[in-house]
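Q: My labmate handed me this sequence with no annotations at all. I'd like to see what the chain might look like in three dimensions before we decide whether it's worth expressing. Could you predict it?
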Amino acid sequence: MERATAERAALVALLRQPDLSWSDTAHEVQEVGSALGVLGRVVGRADTLFPDERYVDSLVEAAADELAAWQAEDITVRAFFDDGYPAQLRDIREMPPLLFARGDLRPDRRAIAVVGSREASDRGIEIARSVATSLAARDVTVVSGLAKGIDTTAHQAALAAGGRTVAVIGTGIRRHYPATNRELQEHIAEVGLVISQFWPDTAPTKQSFPMRNAVMSGYAAATVVVEAGERSGARIQARLALQHGRPVVLTSQVMRHDWARAFADRPGVHVAHGTAELMGSVDAILARVPAASELEGFPEFASL
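A: Here is what I predict for the chain of 304 residues:
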């Protein structure tokens, strides 16, 4: 087994351990510079007089079989130390150690998240469609969460305009949620990209969607909130985006809510009245996006 595959398999094996935190595991692997090294220490007792190397080897082989099975289903798996992992996710606290993808996983520096309420108003739908269409015309990737309402409209408008769209989902990559968006999800996987941070068969949970919002925020250069109530996931994403150092653009539609007015004066928040003003803010944000060559990777894994 080649070293890169063994390292990726070792990370899968580590994350399969029931008592290990995914976040802590990723940080430990980063510090040690080898998932195989951490696996040997954690489950193989490599730092004892009686290391269990055969057990470690069996875990790595089983994980490698899983990786091969996923690949056979056209599911791409990238570890955070792989070259093909989205570099912009490495600088957020919620960085997923593994990313599962279907579609064209490629550098996406010009990506803007368009999010909003599931129970969208007619005006909200109109704004989302206009924004996504304008982004696609600028060759900007439209990122959203495949939920009904604003998310669905943003994906559909980007596709209708011939643009690229990325769906960041809150379930496993084999799941379709909501069920009514199954066909849309499959189409995005064919012409764009669907990504998930969860095991492929993971069902939706109350916790998985805020986790999805964190990854969506990290993936995109900025987040546009079309409309969102006090308990909306889009509100959560706006807060996370600011924590990640990503700009947030709020439409006049969302400014009727107390939370949005409280956000309006924060650094990094733009309030836009109309599509033209919103796209002007987006253009200014994209002009400051660093080139891919400026993003730091993990040199300790460069030889894999």
